[in-house]
Amino acid sequence: MTLDPRAWGFPPDTVLKLHPEPPEDGEMAKYWRPHWPAGPWEKEPFDYVWWQQDGYDCLLTRNRMGAWCGYVGVGPEHPWFQVGYSSCRSGVNLP
Q1: For 12-34, what is each residue's pLDDT tens digit?
Q2: Pairwise CA distance, residues 84 & 15, whole Å
Q3: Nearest to residue 1, comparing CAs of 43, 50, 40?
Q4: Contact 48, 21 (CB under 8 A)
Q5: Residue 95: its pLDDT value, please?
Q6: What percentage of the chain exceeds 90 in pLDDT?
Q7: Is the dihedral of CA 52, 60, 11, 88 positive or negative?
Q8: What percent of the chain is modeled with pLDDT above 70?
Q9: CB atoms inside a 10 Å sphere around CB 15
Q10: Three-state DSSP class for 69?
Q11: Is the dihedral of CA 43, 62, 18, 29 positive or negative?
């Protein structure tokens, strides 16, 4: 499988990579990719995507259970600067 971001529909300067493996004896090891059940991630050679859009740093990453989570870095001028992700209310509904 290719890590060329264009092959996956991302702009050419997008960073795609796998998360580093934790120590096999660590508590988090059981939550890492090799221990996930079968799923769509088996066809993806990455679980971390970083790019910039409209001046913002954007990140997609698979959490410890394999679900995609998205984050956008905002600066001090933004009302959500240093606000925890569970405290932000956007009113955005995703299908």
Answers
A1: 888 887 665 555 566 666 667 77
A2: 25
A3: 43
A4: no
A5: 46
A6: 1
A7: negative
A8: 77
A9: 13
A10: strand
A11: negative
Q: Name residue 87's amino acid.
A: S
**Structure token pair of residue 41:** 């991630």
Instruction: For residue 51, report the phi and psi dihedrals to the nearest 5 degrees.
Output: -155, 170
Is 31:19 a contact under the CB 8 Å cutoff?
no
Polymer length of the chain: 95
Type of residue found at 22: P
Number of Cα atoms under 13 Å in the Cβ half of residue 20 = 2
β-bridge mates for residue 49, sequence order: 16, 60
Angle made by CA atoms 75, 3, 15, in degrees to the nearest 5: 10
Q: Hey, what are 38's tokens?
A: 């079968």
For the chain, the distance separating the N- and C-terminal CA atoms, rounded to the nearest angstrom, is 28
CA dist 40 and 28 (Å) reads: 21
Asked if residues 88 and 53 have their Cβ atoms less than 8 Å apart, the reply is no
